[in-house]
Design brief:
The chain has 26 residues and is mainly α. The protein has one domain. 81% of the residues lie in helices and 0% in strands. It is built from one helix and no strands. It is rod-shaped and about 35 Å long.
Length: 26
């Protein structure tokens, strides 16, 4: 099953949030 555009956008958002929180920890 191919991921929909919405799922891709959500994944990108999660990645950005994860990187941001990781930066805050450092």
């Amino acid at each position: 099953m191919q991921p929909t555009l919405t799922q891709l956008v959500e994944e990108i958002k999660d990645t950005k949030v994860f990187r941001r929180s990781k930066k805050d920890v450092e």
